[in-house]
Design a protein that fits this description.
By secondary structure, the chain is an alpha+beta fold. Helices cover about 35% and strands about 20% of the residues.
Amino acid sequence: MAKVSVELNDASEAAIYTTQAATLRQAFAHEYITRSGLVAADTQTAFALSIAFSLFPTPAQEKRAAARLAQIVLTYSRFKIATGFAGTRFIGHALTKTGQSNLMYRMLLERKCPSWLYPVTMGATTIWERWDSMLPDGSVNPGEMTSFNHYALGAVAGWMHGVILGLSIVEPGWKEFRVEPVPGGNLKWAEGRYLSAYGECAVRWEIREEKWFWLRVTVPPNTEALVKLPGGHDVEMIGSGIYTWEVPYSADPWPPRAIFPPNMVAGDQLPDED
């Protein structure tokens, strides 16, 4: 609301909402965030939302929260999704924001329920309302909430578009957009486009010879794009046209492995295993 008020040139309303936002952030941190950066609810959702909405008062607290989120993913859920409707949209963005995209790639490629690929292994062509709307034996889950065409858990597509492909809007109408792909997992290429009012905004990237990152970006007439290549390169502003880049690339270790206690047999199935 503070941002809306600024856009509407309403300085008094902007001041009121800016103050309220700061007060609410303070109150949330006081009630639910420890000094070290842990969150009262020790869950994927609590950490994902807190990180995604920048609710930690200090960078040190957010860093600690990022480490705890990674620990939950590796040790407790072991790459299975555990966010529900509220956190599913944000878990990937929280991991990417804290430099842990490969953990999200690993979660995205998990096949055991609950996961995005479990429905695919069951023949799904749509997103279900619950992870196990169809049970492993092929029967329909007898509980309530068993829609086989339900968007919420499919919100992961936002992360796929904005992080895997790297394509996101900056200004309304795509007058300006951003291209910042974050390759990971065992993906060797990605391609996609958005048909804006100005024309087609298109991106394709490839990993070549395991050591080069190649990118092609199409910017329609009368628009601009911010481009950031992997590897710490500076952001580059470009105008309309078709552009290509090729830069050195070194992949993060893959795949991450789940952590099991010494008295338990490790049972994490790797993405490339049947």
